[in-house]
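Predicting holo structure, NDP bound.
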Amino acid sequence: MVEKPFTNKIIVITGATRGIGLACAMRLQKEGAIICAIQRGNSKLFDSFGCDLSNEQDCHKSINEIIEKYARIDVLINNAGIMHESSIQDTSLENWNQTLAVNLTAPFLLAKFCMPFLIKSKGCIINIGSIEGIGANPNHTAYCSSKAGLHGLTRAIAIDHGKDGVRCNAVAPGWIDTELNEEFINSMPDSEHFRNNIGNIHPLNRTGKADEVASLVSWLASSESSFVTGQVYTVDGGRMAKISLPKS
Ligand code: NDP
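Done. Tokens:
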């Protein structure tokens, strides 16, 4: 029998209760991993560690509990993220700080707390960034800043810890059908029109599925990508490759 690629691997993932995080966790579990899921809500599918990622003590406690229980960490996936709709003038310092706390500071803290164990296991980190860390949608001041920062953090970790055998990469999804985007569509003045047209802006003429992000994450977490580090991979149906023209 062929052994599954992640048999006995301890994979820590944030935000595994829904959306992209859930798809990644399910795929890696199917491939043999033991999933430690970190988020505020409880997950019945995985070993769940309750944590508000905007709280440093919570982040530390979760990693300590995982180490007490499993004594190793092979992969850290910083997936959880939040998005507020506002231009710079409408962004309160509170919203800015909250977005940066969950989307950028938590990945920094978790990477820091996991690093001694990742060095031992020659493990890796995968950060879920965004095409909004490369380009920008309107009214995403804090979100875009946090995702660009996360791409920078990815490269910084990769170059400092390559010598330790620890790889670090980011995945930058485009439009993926999840609750986060459903909320965004519902906030639009004409949500039906938006929903019917969002697929058209993609060369592949459709939006993406969480499983399509999970397959790249699985590859980056595996030894198949053993010479890959410090990279940001877009998974966006070709959206970033398209230069816009006025309608003729
Ligand atoms: P969802 O909103 O569907 O899920 C977010 C997850 O993060 C939930 O499991 C939630 O769990 C957790 N979470 C949110 N806030 C906190 C917090 N303070 N502490 C702990 N956990 C928290 O998001 P998606 O699946 O759509 O997105 C996942 C990642 O992918 C995000 O980083 C997002 O920015 C990124 N992304 C998504 C895209 C898309 O099109 N969907 C496009 C580009 C990037 P709980 O509420 O239980 O805490």
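The pocket of NDP is lined by residues 14-15, 17-21, 39-41, 51-54, 79-82, 102, 128, 130, 173, 175-176, 178-181 (CB under 6 Å).
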